[in-house]
Design brief:
single chain, mainly alpha, 4 helices
Amino acid sequence: MDLPMHAEPIPCPRALPLIETERTVMMVLLSGEHDPWTRADLQREIAGTKDDPLAVIDAINTLYGAGLVHFTGELVTPTRPARKMDELTEGTI
């Protein structure tokens, strides 16, 4: 049975908050104010503003999958390409 397709894709309700949380994680990591960050530190720091601790972990894992962060044990650091893009965009991303 074929179902009709929607003219416009239906946005995933969690997709936008995840993107915002990913952006926040990268801003925190690239700020250089506190280095290195552990997953737990990031979760505590960001979950208070986003009110969703699991979203922070999802964002960190998605950023890892995209090659934007490294894991060294519990430590999370931005990759060289992520740092370069931040430099090229003068921190506006």
